[in-house]
Each structure stands twice: as C-alpha cells, then as structure tokens.
Amino acid sequence: MGAGQAKTRKQPQGVAKPSDGVSIDLDTVPVRVENVKINGLSRTKDDYVSQSVQELFKATTFNELVFKASVVQGKLEKLGCFRDVGIIIDVSDSSPDGYEVIYNVRESGRFVGGINTMIGANEGSLVLGCRLPNILGRGERINLEHTIGSDSNKSSLLTAVKPLGGSWNADISGTLFHHKNPAYWSSYTVFSTGALLDFAFESAQKVRHNMQWEGAWRQLEASSRQTSFAVREQSGHSFKSSLRHIMTVDHRDHPIFPSSGVLLKLVQEYAGLGGDVAFVKHDSELQANIPLPHNLVLQGALRFGVLRPLDARDSTHNISDLFFLGGPQTVRGFEMRSLGARSGSDALGGKAYWASAVHLYMPLPFGFGRGSFGEYFRTHAFVNAGNINDSSFNTEDFAQSFQTMMKDFRASYGIGVAIRLGQLARIEINYCWPYRFSKGDRLVRGVQLGLGIDFL
After folding, report:
1. Where in the cell does this protein reside (predicted)?
2. Res 19: pLDDT
3. Using CA atoms, how far apart are residues 107 and 49, in angstroms rounded to an integer?
4. Are residues 330 and 338 in contact, defined by beta-carbon separation less than 8 angstroms?
5. Each residue of 307-341: b (16+ CB within 10 Å) or e?
6. What is the pLDDT of residue 329?
7. How many Cα atoms sit within 13 Å of 295 on the Cβ side?
C-alpha cells in the first residue's frame, strides 16, 4: 500500500459499517496494539527501528492509533534508511479490540548520487553529491558534496554521520571542508580549509542544540585592484579554533509562512583554543507570529549580535569574522551588506548590530488561488530598522554602547509579494522606501528582489 494509508479487514466489534448509515466516532473505538511488524528490512538492524515505534503501544482509541501510526511513519522516513514507508493497520484475531500495525519499507540503495540546486543568501547553487546511506545498519552515512554558486562561491564537503538515537534524538558528525567565499560587498575572498565536529541533540520538544568545534586555516585575499587598503591590510593567513553552541527553539506552525508560534535562536562562539584568532561572539534572533482575523498574520522579529576581541590587538580577528547588515534579507531598501562604516566602495562591517522587522502578511487579494497555488504566495507590508557599528557592550560602557546603537539607525518600509519555494526557501519581490539613512548608505529605492532561506 502507499505511504500514509490505513487498511482494516473487518470492523471492530460493536461498530456498524458505514453502509448502514451510522456514523462512527473513532475516538470511542477502543484499541490495544498487540503487534508491530516492519517488513522489508535487510541491512537495517531491528533494534535501530524498534525505538521509533514504541509509542504505538500507548494508543487507546482508533483515532489515536491512526495519528500515532502517521507520526511513526515520519520518524521512520527521517532515519534516512528507507526510500518508501507504507502503513497497514489490521485487526488482530486474538482479541476483539486488538490491532497490529504493519510497515512495509523499501531500503535505500547502498550508493545514492545526484545533482540538485540550493538557494543561499540571494544566490543559487548547483550541488553535485553522492552518499552512502545506512552503512552499518543503524543510520550511519557518509556524504560527499561539491557546490558551485552563482556568485563564484565554491565548497567541498566530506561528512560522516552517526545517529545516537534515544530520547534526546542525538547524533554526532564530523566534516572535512574547503570553502571559497567571495565577499563582493567588501572586495575580498576568503578560502577556508578545516574540520568541524558537531554533537546535536534535543533537550525538550522542539528545542535543538548543536555543540560544535571548528578548526579552520583561512586565507583572505583582495579580490580586485580596487580593493581598499582597509581591507587589503587584513589579507593573509590565520588559523581559527573555536567552540560554538547553537540553540534553536522553534514552535512555529510553518517554517516559511508561519501563522502562529515563536522562534528563538541563540549562537555563542568562543575562538581562541589555539591559533591566532581570539574573540567571543554572540548572535540571537527572536520571531513571534500572531494570527489575526481574515487570515492576516502580524509578525515581529528582532536580531542582535556582538563580537568582543579577547585581545586589544586587531590581528586577533579579521573582516570575515565581523557582522554585516543590509539587503533584502535583513534591512530592506539598502544594498546587500552595505550598511555601516566604509572605505571607498568597500563595506567594513561591524562588531555589533541590531535589526528589527514588523510584517503584516496577507493571502493574495480576493481569495485568488486559495486552496491551490495561492498557498505559495503571501502579500505583505513591512517596516525594517537596524544599525551596525563597533560598539563593545562591555559592562562599564553598556549604556553608552546602547545609545550609540540607537543613534543614526537606518529604517525603511514597503510592500511586496513573497513566494514559497518548497519548505525551506522563498523569493521576495518588494517595493521599498528607505526613509532613515546616513550619508554614504547605498539605497535601493523601488523594486528589490530577495532570494534565500533566512529572512528577517
């Protein structure tokens, strides 16, 4: 049977058939799950999949059984071992209210390769990849990817992942990488080669943690003859060894067009475990969505970040470690990452920033496309504000840093259309009016196009 279907061979005792014209309240039909079978296992170990089906035995009504069977189906699909997972719910012959649940699975091949596209920060990429799934039978996998971006970005990754499972849904991974990241807004290119270790787990429902160590040898180069001296003097090699903690709390009902729920993301990084790069960096994001009548959604979002060098010398970090602000994904109505201090035509970034947004999202006018293609579109009106500079936010000068950050902030407003691309990315076509800006800011008055995953 196809995935998500449920089949019964006979009606539970005491419940009339639908052809009799009697409605059935599935919440009153008693259920006791006596057996769960998974057909089609070859390489996959029984103990690895059994932990995903335990909650089926807690079902007490037929409605609850159907819901839990669907949840378990999703868990089995996320294990990364199967190409297809089908469900059969059958009545047991041993007792009147006994049931058994059968999952028919097809395991993934030993080698999977392909060519895909990926969307980043206002750019598209072509991804050439291959992976070895379920190598040892418990979800272990090795991925090899090479990515070519439309802005001359390139990266190569070799990743090994070992799921640990358990109530924390944990896994551990190791990655070897080589990145080429041009920064056209500052006229430099940085090459990074190194390794990343990641331990991921859930401390509570929808609360995800990533504990990471990264070691990277970096080479920063001026990308043109017009690169300013302020950027050019930071060229050269550096080695960064850092610990990073990422906590994501996501209670939204949809990742792209949420109508309710809250997102909180906190990132802390400590660089200085060897090497010549030493700083502490904090970055945070808060988003709240409030449903309103007539399918309207009011969304508010705030981001804040600060970098503090661990040494008074500027050589303990370079421009690639700093924050940048501006563009269709942060403060709309300004060019990409163009806000803050400049040297000639190059943006210099900053050690601290804040950015905020208020949106009013609406479906397409007059119910156009409702229930079909219209679900991929939202119109919105927005107000953006933010600022970036080198405020330190140390304890002794916190108040002064706050006042500096609130002085001469940039702001814009506008209207536009957002288009959902699958469940991860979106396109925005906005008409922007910057109304608060500083001398030297690069404005985008009128139409601005945004493409990416992470929008403020």
Report:
1. Mitochondrion outer membrane
2. 54
3. 12
4. no
5. bebeeeeeebbbbbbbbbbbbbbbbbbbbbbbbbe
6. 93
7. 15
C-beta neighbour count of 245 within 10 angstroms: 13
CATH architecture of structural domain 18-107: Roll (3.10)
56, 358, 363, 442 from 293: Cα distances, Å:
37, 17, 12, 38
Q: How many residues does the chain have?
A: 456
Buried residues in 159-176 as b, exposed as e (16+ CB within 10 A):
bebebeeeeeeebebebe
CATH 2.40.160.50 location in the chain: 112-452
In angstroms, rounded to a whole number, what is the distance separating the alpha carbons of residues 8 and 57?
Answer: 18
CATH 3.10.20.310 positions along the chain are 18-107
Residue 253 phi/psi, 5° resolution?
-85, -5
The pLDDT value recorded for residue 16 is 41
Mean pLDDT of residues grouped by 10 in the chain (456 residues)?
41 47 69 87 86 85 88 85 88 83 88 81 82 88 90 90 85 95 92 96 92 96 90 92 96 92 96 90 96 94 93 79 93 92 90 95 84 87 94 76 85 95 88 90 92 89
* Fold adopted by 112-452: Porin (2.40.160)
Name the one residue in this structure whose structure tokens are 């503090």. 308
User: What letter represents residue 288's amino acid?
Assistant: A
The structure's pTM equals: 0.86
Query: Which amino acid is present at 398?
Result: F
CA dist 379 and 376 (Å) reads: 11
In Å, how far from its chain's centre is CA 441?
30
Apex CA 337: angle with CA 363 and CA 412, to 5°?
50
Give the DSSP H/E element, type plus range, for residue 125. Answer: strand 124-132
Helix (H, G, I), strand (E, B) or coil at 381: strand
Question: Residue 97: exposed, middle, or buried by beta-carbon count in 10 A (0-12, 13-18, 19+)?
Answer: middle
Are residues 119 and 55 in contact, defined by beta-carbon separation less than 8 angstroms? no
